[in-house]
Amino acid sequence: MKSKTLIVGCCLAAILAKCGPDGRCAAGEPAPSVEATVSEWATVRVAPVQAKRRLIDWRLTDPTDVLAAVDKNLDELEQIVHKAGTQMCDVLAFPEDTLGLLNWYGMNVENAPQVLPQAVDRMIDRLGRAAASHDMYLVLCSDFTESDGATYNTAFFLGRDGKPIGRYHKTCPTWSECGARERGDSLPVFPTDDLGAVGMLICYDLVFPETARCLALAGADIIFFPTMGGAAVGDDDIGLQALRVRAAENHVYLVVAFRNSGSMIISPRGKIIARAEGADGLAIADINPRGGRQGGDAMNHQRDMRARLFRERNPAAFGILTDPNPPILEKIPIAITQSEAGRIAAEVLTIGEEEFRQAGELVRTGKRTEAIAAYRRLQTRYRGSWIDRVATERLRTLEATTSDSNAR
Question: How far is Cα 159 from Cα 52, in angstroms, rounded to an integer?
Fold first, then answer.
């Protein structure tokens, strides 16, 4: 193991020397625990990568071509693993959509069973072997088609030997994701000797406080968070602040692996203790997975605030949280199906962007009538998306300009 350790044997011997065989000290009081005597347990070096955008062309239809593109991405990702290994990292976490297949999958769902299992096998094999050469844990994330034919947004946890310890299916995919993916139905925690208990969440999962709380209640010490977004829908930097709150309200370490920017490590007190810089940069921190949780109030302070927090909650009052049809849903119907939302999301990221650019080109070349018709089609085809919203704004401008010209 590469992590720094504190030898506790001398402390244990000192305790036993002062206490009898029944575990009680000379004064008749229970012996202090080793945990209470030791100020620091083993530390581990944790690193999420801020991977740059590596998207596989959604126009590729031949599985052989797609897998060749996967291998090309893996060549670069493997170098990041070695980079983390040379910096003596104990664990490395990659962002959501590690392989860059998100857009491809959205436009090629029918070909996914021929691609996703092989692509993920290659990812686990190649990156796992690279990580094992540095005795390093690994967290990866990709869409994955299971043996039952269902596809899940999946996070994979690999051991220091490069072999899978377990995987997690995203439990709270967005409305549009559900058009082509299944929801996971559990929030597993994976015990380790040196990282503590490990949990994983993916992107939109963390918008729901219940997910991190479930992992914390199951004993998670550290949550790895592969993502392409924050942890709240709102204004300004609320997405960032929500990440800090999730860590603090559950007293867990939160390791955020973000694409392009935003990778960081957050302490159980909600403090950002490391940030990544630049493309493929690493946020690195040495942490004690079982420490950093001191807290309390004027009446009672705890070495680990979870001892109080999770006893002070009142589960009997929380029944509505597990009601699949709470009263609020009757007041706010949704006007789009998951299937339609999934179709729109997939096309917005691919052909929709091309069609939007084409409409803009019509404006630039003075073809206002054609541009107006194009933007109206975009409104209908991509309703509710950013393309719909911006097309509506452009239409207002174009129609107002056309009306002024006709008035003259």
Answer: 25
